[in-house]
Write a sequence for this structure.
């Protein structure tokens, strides 16, 4: 068994506007020819980068007008960062909880993001505190979002070990009692193995990550790490595409001010955001295909004014509704590489599902 964990020294340099991997950074001139500003912004998002069209307005607000309070970590926002890390034998590291409410139970390394932390900084800190090991995140593998007395989000990463010593019971502290390596079989048969979990909600995430790492590189979604972009509010940028009867690929734009991809303020869940967009643009509910995250934007500092998260979500409309709001229009995508990447990112399993 061989897990395809992208590790230290792996060459991942590629052209900024396509997926051509090479041993030097370059932009292929053919990738830039005849590419409109909208297509270039779409290409950026398809490659995990923030849109080159700046966010200057929110098109739809989930909360009533006047509810303009920012998202503040520790007040109306809780962000959990977690890690699924395997060793060369296909075992995953778990930790034994030290907290009074779940003391002695096992779980995967996870904890609350602290003020002024980026998501990557937070997960590296939590992983080391709880396991004694250090790791380098290579990609997100799972994103969850709920409304529980405010916003609650959990970002799960995977990556490769870089050092440290596995925590043993003699090094127990308030973070954890110890850490250990477990096979998937041990986890699935925890009762027979006398293993008690804090919760079983992490098991599907571990299975998903294992499946992802077992795939060849060309058969998995692109590595996706958060980009450092400040956001005051929780929001969702929707990249809604459709294919016409003539096989044209079109993307929905909001034309107010500068043409841009529709953005929903105080968004927390894809289905809710898409319903609001459908009612605003089409005055009727639409049906959508896969909903994949293209880019996660967050920086976390300064605390209280940049704690928000923006999820950039790609989906396709499966009903041919007529636009009834003249603020919106369909833009035809003509660049062949953009069209190819849109189709690829929409394939099942070729993206991180948006909650």
């Amino acid at each position: 068994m061989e897990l395809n964990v992208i590790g230290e020294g792996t060459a991942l340099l590629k052209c900024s506007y396509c997926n051509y991997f090479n041993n030097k950074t370059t932009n292929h001139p053919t990738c830039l020819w005849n590419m409109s500003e909208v297509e270039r912004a779409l290409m950026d998002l398809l490659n995990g980068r923030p849109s080159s069209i700046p966010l200057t307005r929110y098109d739809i607000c989930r909360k009533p007008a006047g509810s303009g309070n920012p998202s503040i970590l520790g007040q109306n926002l809780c962000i959990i960062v977690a890690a699924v890390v395997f060793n060369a034998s296909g075992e995953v590291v778990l930790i034994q909880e030290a907290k009074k409410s779940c003391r002695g139970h096992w779980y995967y390394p996870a904890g609350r993001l602290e003020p002024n932390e980026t998501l990557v900084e937070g997960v590296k800190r939590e992983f080391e505190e709880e396991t004694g090991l250090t790791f380098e995140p290579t990609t997100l593998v799972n994103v969850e979002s709920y409304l529980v007395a405010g916003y609650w989000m959990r970002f799960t990463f995977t990556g490769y070990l870089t050092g440290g010593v596995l925590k043993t019971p003699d090094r127990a502290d308030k973070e954890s009692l110890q850490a250990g390596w477990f096979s998937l079989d041990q986890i699935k048969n925890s009762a027979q193995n006398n293993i008690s979990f804090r919760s079983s909600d992490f098991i599907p995430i571990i299975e998903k990550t294992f499946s992802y790492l077992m795939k060849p590189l060309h058969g998995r979604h692109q590595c996706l790490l958060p980009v450092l972009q400040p956001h005051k509010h929780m929001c969702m940028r929707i990249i809604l595409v459709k294919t016409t009867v003539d096989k044209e690929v079109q993307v929905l734009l909001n034309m107010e001010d500068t043409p841009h991809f529709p953005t929903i303020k105080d968004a927390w869940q894809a289905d809710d955001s898409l319903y609001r967009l459908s009612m605003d643009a089409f005055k009727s509910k639409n049906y959508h295909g896969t909903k994949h995250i293209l880019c996660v934007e967050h920086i976390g500092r300064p605390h209280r004014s940049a704690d928000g998260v923006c999820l950039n979500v790609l989906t396709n409309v499966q009903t041919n509704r007529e636009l009834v709001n003249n603020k919106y229009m369909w833009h035809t995508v003509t660049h062949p590489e953009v069209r190819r990447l849109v189709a690829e990112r929409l394939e099942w399993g070729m993206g991180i599902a948006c909650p």
User: Anything to note?
Assistant: The first strand starts at residue 60 and ends at 61. The chain has a mean pLDDT of 91.
